[in-house]
């Protein structure tokens, strides 16, 4: 079922959902299930599964370093299928521009369609680790909006190199990313919102936001998006702080601000166990306020660990 239909069906009730990361190549999928199991009690209508970009690894061959391109956490679509099958829940694979040609994307979408996956999240992806800026893959897309257009074309039976007469057209519901504190490369929040509007005009059905720790930023973002004519659901994505290092890491990687009260509370912690508790309590307060404001879904970035998300969901849902 489409995310937008889940939201309609909920008739104003805030839904619970979360995002997971595929295991590192070669690791057992059981650990993933062990972290999903405790969250199923909160009835998520959908679970997102991220896609990682390819990266270079250096292999020592008799003293000479061989540079190889690899994907450390493959298996997004397979994991989506296995979770859907095991838990009878909708899954949302993240589909990236970076690292994929348009043809590879088409085949991935065909696989998703055959597997009964109704939703996809269309993203550009970040720059590769050793690159400063995002470089489009040869034969791939430059921006998420181009990917949204490809998916919409496929929904109409227009494949890359042929138009197919079919009684079994895909009808993907498309999610895209939004940034309450603007995307790190965007010159201004307004220009970033214009780009978001382009994605919605191209056929995106809903938006999931980057994490934020100050709800006011989300509320202002939603108001600004509405004023610009963006009328699809904007799902807040949030995450509890878990370790002290997040104070530096999250602003550095995502260019987001942390409220001073949260910084002070984390700074005052002697151990990461205490930090985890502060993170959970902050996220509970954020969640309660967002729920009271009537957000359609509270979407949690679990980073593969469920204990803190469960502690939050127990107090909120
Ligand atoms: P875009 O919408 O293409 O925007 C990228 C930048 O380009 C923005 O600054 C925008 O303002 C600008 N822009 C857009 N269109 C144009 C244009 N036509 N001309 C000039 N500038 C333009 N990354 C992963 O690798 N894997 C994941 O699974 C993943 N999941 C995510 C889930 C969510 C909810 C979010 C918020 C992010 C996720 N990301 C993921 C990170 C995402 O890939 C990065 O933030 C990436 O840098 C931007 O992706 P985008 O889809 O927002 O890009």
Task: Describe this structure as you would to a colleague.
The protein is of the alpha/beta class and 317 residues long. It has one domain: TIM Barrel. Helix content is 40%, strand content 17%. It contains eleven helices and eleven strands. Helix 2 (30-36) links the parallel strand 1 and strand 2 (46-49). It is globular and about 60 Å long. The model has no long low-confidence stretch (mean pLDDT 96). Flavin-adenine dinucleotide (FAD) binds at residues 50-51, 53, 94, 96, 123-126, 143-145, 177, 183, 185-186, 192, 195, 199, 208, 210, 237.
Fill in the keyword field for this structure:
alpha/beta, flavoprotein, FAD-linked_oxidoreductase-like, binds flavin-adenine dinucleotide, TIM Barrel, single chain, nine-stranded parallel β-sheet, 317 residues, Methylenetetrahydrofolate reductase, MTHF_reductase_bac, 40% helix, two-stranded antiparallel ribbon
Give a short synopsis of this structure.
Its EC number is 1.5.1.54. The chain is an alpha/beta fold. It has eleven helices and eleven strands.
């Amino acid at each position: 079922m489409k995310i937008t239909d889940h939201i309609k069906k909920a008739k104003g009730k805030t839904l619970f959902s979360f995002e997971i990361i595929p295991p590192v190549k070669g690791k057992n999928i059981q650990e993933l299930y062990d972290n999903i199991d405790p969250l199923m009690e909160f009835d998520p209508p959908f679970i997102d599964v991220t896609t990682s970009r390819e990266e270079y690894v250096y292999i020592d061959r008799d003293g000479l370093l061989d540079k190889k391109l690899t994907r450390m956490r493959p298996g997004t679509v397979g994991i989506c299928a296995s979770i859907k099958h095991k838990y009878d829940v909708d899954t949302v694979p993240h589909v990236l521009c970076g690292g994929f040609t348009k043809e590879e994307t088409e085949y991935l979408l065909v696989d998703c369609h055959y597997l009964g996956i109704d939703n996809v999240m269309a993203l550009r992806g970040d720059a590769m680790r050793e690159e400063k800026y995002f470089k489009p893959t040869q034969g791939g897309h430059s921006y998420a909006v181009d990917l949204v257009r490809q998916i919409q074309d496929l929904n109409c039976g227009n494949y890359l190199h042929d138009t197919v007469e079919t009684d079994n057209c895909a009808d993907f519901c498309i999610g895209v990313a939004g940034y309450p504190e603007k995307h790190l490369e965007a010159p201004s929040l307004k220009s970033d919102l214009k780009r978001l509007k382009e994605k919605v005009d191209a056929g995106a059905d809903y938006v999931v936001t980057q994490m934020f720790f100050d709800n006011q930023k989300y509320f202002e973002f939603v108001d600004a998006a509405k004023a610009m004519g963006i009328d699809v659901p904007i799902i807040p994505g949030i995450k509890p702080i878990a370790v002290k290092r997040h104070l530096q890491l999250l602003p550095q990687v995502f260019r987001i601000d942390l409220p001073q009260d949260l910084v002070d509370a984390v700074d005052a912690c002697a151990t990461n166990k205490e930090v985890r508790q502060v993170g959970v309590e902050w996220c509970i307060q954020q969640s309660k306020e967002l729920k009271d404001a009537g957000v359609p879904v509270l979407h949690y970035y679990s980073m593969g660990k469920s204990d803190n998300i469960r502690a939050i969901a127990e107090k909120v849902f």
